[in-house]
């Protein structure tokens, strides 16, 4: 089985995370999937950034929720990473969906509702995806499982994964209860023997965030359905080497 490689926050290892430059890089290398994080501005616009605050990844300070989109757009979201990416801005979900119009991989939209439970963000995300009708499959995820349940109520067909830090007992029962198709597991849980049981129970397993080459090889050997990595190009090379070795063994 081929493990899908998701470009975490675009291509976080070599581009400023969650920017247009990062998503272009993920498209350039044709990663199997792209993961991004979504928050809501003061004027209810969907923006792509990881943290609740803009301090770490822009030259501004404060909470996303306290700025209008127009105000947020004044901050630089690339220069903190390198001068080469000066003038990158915090993108909107709409801008990314337009950029990815012809992308053929899977877009994983993570609802960042675990610290700030933005009211009605699930409806807004579903509306944006409907409006821009991407050709690629869309996969939702969140650490806030109530948020996922709300998403499911709005869009019963939505494909979503449950993000977990913890190692749950019989996690497939929990996943089925919410209606998820997959579990997005923190590395230690993904590397455990229960991964194959979860898959036998009919759920996909994706692991995050996998940047170490040996971890990648172990997860390819386990046959997980996907990995989220900051280094998708490196992961694709390692997967090729891994496949060649498997062929030689036969
Ligand atoms: O989806 C995997 C990963 O994105 C979850 O953690 O904090 O990078 O959003 P985080
Ligand atoms: Mg994320």
UniProtKB/TrEMBL annotation:
Gene Ontology biological process terms in this record: lipid metabolic process
Domain annotation GP-PDE: ranges: 3-239
Superkingdom of the organism of origin: Bacteria
InterPro entries (UniProt xref): GP_PDE_dom, PLC-like_Pdiesterase_TIM-brl
GO molecular function per UniProt: phosphoric diester hydrolase activity
Pfam families membership: GDPD
Protein name per UniProt: Glycerophosphodiester phosphodiesterase
Organism per entry: Terrilactibacillus tamarindi
Lineage of the species this protein comes from: Bacteria, Bacillati, Bacillota, Bacilli, Bacillales
């Amino acid at each position: 089985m081929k493990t899908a490689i998701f470009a975490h926050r675009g291509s976080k290892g070599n581009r400023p995370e969650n920017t247009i430059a990062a998503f272009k890089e993920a498209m350039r290398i044709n990663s199997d999937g792209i993961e991004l994080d979504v928050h809501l501005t003061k004027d209810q616009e969907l923006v792509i950034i990881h943290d609740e605050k803009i301090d770490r990844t822009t030259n501004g300070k404060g909470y996303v929720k306290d700025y209008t989109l127009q105000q947020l757009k004044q901050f630089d979201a690339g220069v903190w990473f390198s001068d080469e990416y000066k003038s990158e801005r915090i993108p909107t979900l709409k801008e990314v969906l337009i950029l990815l119009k012809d992308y053929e991989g899977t877009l994983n939209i993570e609802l960042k509702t675990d610290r700030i439970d933005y009211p009605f963000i699930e409806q807004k995300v579903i509306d944006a995806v409907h409006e821009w009708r991407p050709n690629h499959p869309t996969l939702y995820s969140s650490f806030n499982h109530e948020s996922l349940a709300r998403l499911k109520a709005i869009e019963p067909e939505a494909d979503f994964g449950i993000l977990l830090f913890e190692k749950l007992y019989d996690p497939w029962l929990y996943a089925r209860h919410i209606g998820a198709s997959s579990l997005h597991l923190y590395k230690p849980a993904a590397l455990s023997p229960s991964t194959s049981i979860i898959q036998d129970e009919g759920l996909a397993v994706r692991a995050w965030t996998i940047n170490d080459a040996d971890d990648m090889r172990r997860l390819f050997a386990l046959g997980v359905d996907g990995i989220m990595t900051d280094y998708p190009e490196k992961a694709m090379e390692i997967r090729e080497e891994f496949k060649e070795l498997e062929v030689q063994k036969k």
